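Kindly go through one protein, given below as sequence and C-alpha cells. The question is how this chain folds according to its C-alpha cells.

***
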Amino acid sequence: MFKLWVTIKKDFRILLRDKIGIVLMFVMPIVLVIVATGIQNSTFQLVNKNRIQVLVCNQDTGKAGKELIADLDKIGMFSVQELPQSQPSVLTTQMHQTDAMLGIVIPSNFSAQVMSDANKAAGKALKSFGLQGDSAKTLNKVYPLKMYYNPVMEKSLQMSVTSAIQSVVQMVESRQTLRIMYFSINEKPLPIQLENEMLNNKAPVEVLPVSKDKIRSMPNATQHNVPAWTIFAMFFVIMSLSGSVVREKNSGSFIRLKTLPTNFITGIFSKQITYMAVTILQALVIFSMGFWLFPYIGLPALNAPLNVWGLILSTVICGWCAVSYAICVGIFAKTQEQANGFGAISIVILAVIGGLMVPTFAMQGLVKTASSLSPLHWCLEAYYSLFLNGGQTSVVLTNLLYVFIITIAIQVVTYLALKRKNLI
C-alpha cells in the first residue's frame, strides 16, 4: 500500500507539471460546455420564443392578401415586414441586406383565387345541405405563393415553416368559405366574434416529457449538453495521460521499475487512480457550473437527478473507461506525437458516432450500428437516463454494463501489449 501511495504522489507531481495538459482537461471542456450550451439554447429560443424574420412582397390588392399577412404575424412564429415596393427583385435584395431568413411573394391574383375556391367550396357544402348551391364546380386549390429562404436554414426548420405558411393559407380560405356560407343562409355578414370562435376553436395538446421517476420536468439545452461534454472532457485526459505513459516508456522508466522491489502493475494502478480522480474532478467542476454558474450567464440551470448514487457510479465507471483507453493508447504509441494525434482524433470520432455531436436517432445504417461500439455512447446513455429520464440505478446499470465490458476489454488488450513489449 505504501508503494502504491508513493507512486500516486509521483504521478500527481508529473500531472501538475503538465500545464498544457491541465488546460486541455479543464479549461477547454469548460469553454466548450458554455459555448455549445449557449448555441443550442439560442437555437431552442429561435424555434420556441424568438420570431423568424419574414419579408413579404404583396402584389395582391385584395382583402385576402392583407389577411394572409395579418395571420402570419398572429401565429407567433414570424416577425413580418411588408415591403413598400411589390417586386420580387426588391425582396431578394432586402433579404441579403437584412439577413432575413424568409421572403414571401403574394401574387396579384391571390384574393381572386381565394374567393373563387371559397365560392366553389361553399356551393358544394350548401348543395349537400339541400340548399341552393353549385356542386358541379371543382376546386382548383392553386395558390402560386413563392417562398424564398436563406440557404443556411436547416431542412427541418424549412419544412416546419412551409407547413405553418400552408396552414395560414388554409385559414384564409376557410374564413372566406365560412363568410359565404353564413351570408347565403342568413343573408347577413358573419359576426367577427362567431368567426373567431369557429376558426380558433382548437383542441389543446398538453406536451409532457416521459420520465421514469414520474417527475415531469421539461429538458433544456443544459440537460443535453452538460452530461455530453463532461464525458468528452473525461476522455480527453488522453492528451495528458497517454503522453505521460509514452515518456516513461521511452525514457526507460518502465525498465528501471523492473529492477526495483515493486511490481509494474502498481504503476499502472497508480496512473488509473490518479487520473480517475482527475475525471471525477472534471465532472464535479462542470456539473457545478451547470448548477450555479449557468443561471448567472443567462443559460438554463442544470437540474440535478434525484438518484445521486447512480450519478456517482456512472461518473466513476465512465472515468475508469476513459483512463483505461488513454493508457492503452500510450502503451501502443511509439512517440508522444503519435499518442496525442491518434488520441485526439479517435476521441472525436468516438464522440461523433457515440451521439455526443449528432443524436444517434438521426443516424442510419452502418453508422448507427457502429455507435454501439463507442464507449462514449453508453456513457452518454447512462447520464441521459439520470438527467433526462430520471432513471433508477437498475436502469442506469444496463448502460453501465456495456461501459464495464468495454473497459475490461481495453484492460486485457493493454495487459497483452505490456507482455508483448516485455514491460511486465
